[in-house]
Amino acid sequence: GQVRYSVPEEAKAGTVVGRLAQDLGLEAGDAEWRRLRLVSQGRGSSVEVSGASGALVVSSRLDREELCGKSAPCALRLEVLVERPLRVFHVELEVTDINDNAPIFPAARKNLSIAEFNTLPGSRFPLEGASDADVGANAQLSYTLSTSEHFSLDQQGNSDQSASLALILTKPLDRETMPVHRLVLTASDGGRPSLTGTMELVISVLDANDNAPQFNQSVYKVKILEGSEPGTLLTRVSATDLDEGINSDIIYLFGRHVTQELKKMFTIDEKNGEIKLQGILDYEEIGTYEIPVEARDKGTPPLSGHCKVVLEVLDVNDNAPEVWVTSLSVPVPEDASVGTVVALLSVSDRDSGSNGRVRCAVWPSSPFGLESRFAGSYSLVLREALDRERVSEYEVEVRAEDGGSPSLRGRRGVRVAVSDVNDNAPSFLQAVYTVLARENNAAGAELARVWARDPDEAGNGRVSYSLWEGGVGVGAAASSASSSSSSWSGWRAASSYVSVDAESGRVWALQALDYEEVQVLQFEVRAVDAGDPPLVGNATVQVFVVDENDNAPSVLPPSVGGAWGGSVPEASPEESSSESLWAWAWWGAPAGQVVAKIRAVDADSGYNAWLRYEVWEPRGKGPFRVGLYSGEVTTARALEEADGPRQKLVIVVRDHGEPSRSATATLSVSLVEGGEAAASSGSGSSLSGVRPSSVSEGVVSASTNVWLVVAICAVSSLF
């Protein structure tokens, strides 16, 4: 809607024009909080909004004549803005006229020359009327002439300033009786109280030439298009003089009160009365010209006739529409709602009629649109949701086109920046990161790097990383030729093994990893942006510890109640160890007879834990041999008394790692008679030639080797 007020001109500063906040529907006290204010409109700067009361008050002198000239009514269009939310209202303020200007004549004195006797009663002498800057009744003028027996005043037409005014001779003049007549012409306006202006008429009585030139019409009306070429013929005025001889020779010239601007714009030929265009006509500056023309004879004294040329300038479509941005609210947050006002625009065209009717559009047509508030005022509003990550800035062009033929166009570019809101959570390139790390790595070594992308900007897109959750079961995990079980002694958080750099996302090892302690370390990395509220993304990191051959084989002691025995001194995992074992065999035992079984384990896994057995001493072909992977010591041939009462074997146990690690076992085999061995076995002694469980142990050993091969293949496939 539109609020209308009126205020008389010359109202004092501080005069309340209207209760603007109340008329706009604002609550009491909201005017200052919502920043109720006027958008400067040039002519509307004489009024302002009172911040506390929200009233529209006069701030400086209001002069209707200065603001609007002769236009009536004098209406000022104001734009009023309120915020929270942003809204625009339109206020029309009419400045009413008061009678503060008196009529003014063009000159304080006018000289006229009138011939005696030859000038007949009823002769008319045109006078230029007064002007009044006011409008309406305050500008309606009436004229009176001081008392005279020879002259009277004739006023034709309305009482406005365009009325025709003439001095009428009522009685022949006699120069000898009164050579000079002095009269006072008074103009009074229609105001209350009325104001007046005066002009003195000094009339000199002349002799002789008693016929003035007479035009064939008193007013010539001409129409011409603006922008016509200089030199264009406008019209030809013509006058006749009833005198003869030199008193009838006529010259044409502009009236005495023609301004210099008119003389620069038009020319008149003294001989034939042709009036031509000399300057450039602009309808938007002046639409109508009134040119007084005088026809003067060459008599003594010369007599003159007068007419008026009224020139109407016709509008052509020579002005393109103009678009102005009166208010711009940028940047626009990307979560702004549809309908948000982004800018206020003013559109105008100086042409008139269809040439001045303007239609507007916005390009591109999305995501913004135009809404018309009232004639010449538009709002640029949001029509679609914004996404800064897709488009961070828009170059919007408002295009205006008038209704002329051909039409003219104007445009105005508006740059609309979109501000970021935290609407995107960090996103990792992978949901799961798989990392292979060799055991015994150095503390502080970089294991991996994770990276999350956040398309937001500034703090909303600044990502920091942290170790969120995860861990591993910790204990002694051992695999051997006879067992693949693991024992766990507790749970440890992943933060005791690794850390994540908050800025780069690098994953660092806090300590050396031990495959025998930890095979798989799984934890979650969290990426958090710096928005408000912050958004979070997660990724899972799986660190598979790769085994290295850092443990030497270890020979196990014999089982309780076994057929052989020995001592097992402890040794470092990195060094070869030597074990002392003993066993018994009888003379005459056939080839392939199991004498003993060497059992060893390796804390590593895969190839690093795959063990093989070799007889290191004695070299060459001896009476005993050892199974390559079973560790069983068997007779290579039938034992004889020549082999002596005791055989000493040095057996080397090696793994398949690179480089290979080994351990040695010394086996002492005592050769006894068959009966003695049997007696020892029957008495329950632990010194027996052959272990009763040798066959079953061979089966277990074979089964263990099969599982060992399967484990090696599985680890290889994983790598």
From TrEMBL:
Q: What does this protein do?
A: Potential calcium-dependent cell-adhesion protein. May be involved in the establishment and maintenance of specific neuronal connections in the brain.
Topology relative to the lipid bilayer, per the entry, is: Single-pass type I membrane protein
Alphabetically sorted, this entry's keywords are: Calcium, Cell adhesion, Cell membrane, Glycoprotein, Membrane, Repeat, Signal, Transmembrane, Transmembrane helix
Can the keyword Transmembrane be found in this entry's annotation?
yes
- What does the record list as GO biological process? homophilic cell adhesion via plasma membrane adhesion molecules
The scientific name of the source species is: Thinocorus orbignyianus
Gene that specifies this protein = Pcdha3_0
Q: Which Gene3D superfamilies match?
A: Cadherins (2.60.40.60)
- Top-level division of the source organism's lineage: Eukaryota
Domain named Cadherin: residues: 6-105, 130-215, 216-323, 324-428, 429-555, 589-694
- Which PANTHER family does the record match to this protein? CADHERIN-87A (PTHR24028), PROTOCADHERIN ALPHA-4 (PTHR24028:SF133)
Q: Name one GO molecular function term.
A: calcium ion binding
Tell me where in or outside the cell this protein is found: Cell membrane
Q: Would the keyword 4Fe-4S turn up in this protein's UniProt record?
A: no
Q: Name one GO cellular component term.
A: plasma membrane
**Full protein name:** PCDA3 protein
